[in-house]
Specification:
Elements lengths: L15 E4 L2 E4 L7 E5 L11 H10 L7 H4 L6 E5 L8 H14 L7 E5 L9 H8 L1 H6 L1 E4 L8 E5 L5 E4 L1 H5 L2 E8 L1 E2 L3 E2 L13 H11 L13 H12 L4 E7 L5 E7 L3 H14 E4 L3 E7 L13 H7 E10 L8 H13 L4 H10 L10 H16 L1 E5 L5 H7 L2 E3 L2 H11 L4 E5 L6 E4 L5
Parallel strand pairs: 3-19, 4-5, 4-9, 5-6, 9-12, 14-20, 15-16, 15-19, 16-17, 17-18
Antiparallel strand pairs: 1-2, 7-8, 10-11, 12-13
Length: 443
């Protein structure tokens, strides 16, 4: 294990932000007071995924090794995350399948379920790219369908709404989840029980769960007093998630460690490692926060760093959001955002929670993740001026979102300086993976 270093002191002349996988360097006016740069020291990439995975499987947390739990005739369901994260899922799956083969479990007894939640299904080509041609050709691999009529009831939300899961997973003798651990604005961290709920669950329960708990309080990087997480682990237990293998990702979205074992204990172990890797304490809030969306590049996911930015930016301050965008914003998403902002101007936050508390979506018919993304936009606009720099996002789209458009990073900084003349500034090069904390509570 490598030693985890503290944040480095960073010379002002070397200021940069992540734009995709590149570093975008920039200058700021002399009147800008740089309060902090949340730049974590790079750790050598651990390329030996095989040894990390095998070691995790041989030393599971609060669980027996798989060879002591499984029998050759057992039917195994492997629940695996989709292609929205840059985790080494293909390699981990390969080593898991080798382990199952060593236990003499035949390929015909194994089903691989892409735990999409309510995300779009993967095509065969995407499956091959994500999981490998050999796996796709030799094993049964299916996309989970949250609207399928044959999902099986396994439990209830606290409201009484029935939670159902994928029938193939339910009928298996043993369920193994493959996911990744990184800061998550609702669950505290990704990974763990999320592979089952929402991963292979029913649309209605997923939607209600998201709208009931989302953004009522800051839970980024926290499990304690987090009702969203509490229901996830309760439902993962009800659905009999037996074992997980999770990769812990660093601030560069690279593999740092692999944990395996009990879905709650192994996840907590991985989350503790992740927290040490990407936590940063700030002495005070900024007037202007310059934050990258890295590692997120999909249009609606660019909004995720608005959560950490809101923790470290003062009310009515400026957030400069920088991010490469690899997909276009859906017209329905943009129109819904514009309509909501215009209709409820002056009481955006109140109106948002009125919607969610009554089970009403901002995007009528839209998936939970789209409504959560718009919610992040609306909540941020209630308290901050947001400037967006993304070469791939047209000015019209940025303005429909309610953002100030910037054609370059320099334009974004200039617009920020016009709003606040002599600001205290925080720079967050990797905003999608940071867990920010304040040294003291500020009014």
């Amino acid at each position: 294990m490598h030693h985890i270093n503290n944040i480095m002191a960073y010379p002002v002349k070397d200021l940069y932000i992540r734009y995709g996988h590149k570093k975008l360097f920039f200058n700021v006016p002399e009147r800008f007071n740089i309060l902090d740069v949340a730049d974590f020291e790079d750790i050598p990439v651990l390329s030996d995924i095989k040894n990390l995975t095998i070691n995790a499987l041989d030393n599971p947390v609060d669980a027996l090794p798989l060879e002591k739990q499984l029998r050759p005739f057992d039917r195994i369901a492997i629940l695996i995350e989709d292609n929205t994260r840059n985790s080494p899922k293909k390699e981990i799956l390969k080593y898991l399948l080798e382990k199952l083969d060593a236990i003499s479990i035949p390929e015909s007894n194994i089903i691989i379920i892409v735990a999409l939640g309510t995300h779009e299904a993967l095509t065969r080509k995407e499956m091959i790219l994500t999981y490998g041609e050999e796996v796709v050709n030799n094993y049964t691999i299916i996309n989970h369908d949250s609207l399928s009529p044959d999902l099986v009831p396994v439990g209830k939300l606290k409201s009484g709404t029935i939670v159902k899961i994928n029938r193939m997973a339910h009928e298996a003798d043993f369920r193994i989840g493959i996911g990744s651990i990184f800061p998550h604005p609702l669950n505290g961290f990704g990974g763990g029980g999320k592979i089952m709920f929402p991963g292979i669950s029913n649309f209605d329960a997923i939607l209600e769960h998201h709208m009931r708990y989302a953004f009522r309080k800051v839970v980024l990087g926290e499990f304690s007093n987090n009702p969203f997480y509490d229901e996830v682990i309760s439902l993962a237990s009800a659905g009999r998630l037996d074992f997980i293998i999770n990769s812990v990702l660093d601030h560069n979205d690279n593999l740092y460690q692999v944990v395996a074992g009990n879905p709650i204990s192994a996840h907590k172990k991985g989350a503790d490692i992740c927290k040490k890797l990407v936590s940063k304490t700030f002495k005070k809030k900024a007037d202007i926060t310059i934050i990258s969306a890295f590692p997120y590049t999909q249009a609606t996911q660019l909004m995720k760093p608005l959560e950490p930015a809101s923790i470290i930016t003062r009310e009515q301050g400026v957030i400069i959001l920088v991010g490469r965008c690899t997909s276009a914003f859906n017209k329905g998403y943009l129109d819904a955002c514009l309509e909501f902002r215009e209709k409820y101007k002056g009481r955006l936050k109140e109106a948002l929670f009125d919607f969610f508390n009554s089970g009403q979506r901002i995007i009528s018919g839209g998936a939970p993740e789209l409504n959560m993304s718009i919610a992040q936009v609306i909540l941020a606009l209630e308290s901050y001026h947001i400037i967006l720099f993304s070469e791939e996002v047209p000015k019209e789209d940025a303005e429909k979102l309610g953002f100030i458009y910037a054609a370059t990073i320099e334009d974004a900084i200039h617009s920020g300086s016009e709003l606040i003349q002599s600001p205290g500034v925080i720079i967050v090069p990797s905003g999608g993976v940071i867990i920010p904390e304040l040294e003291q509570i500020q009014v």
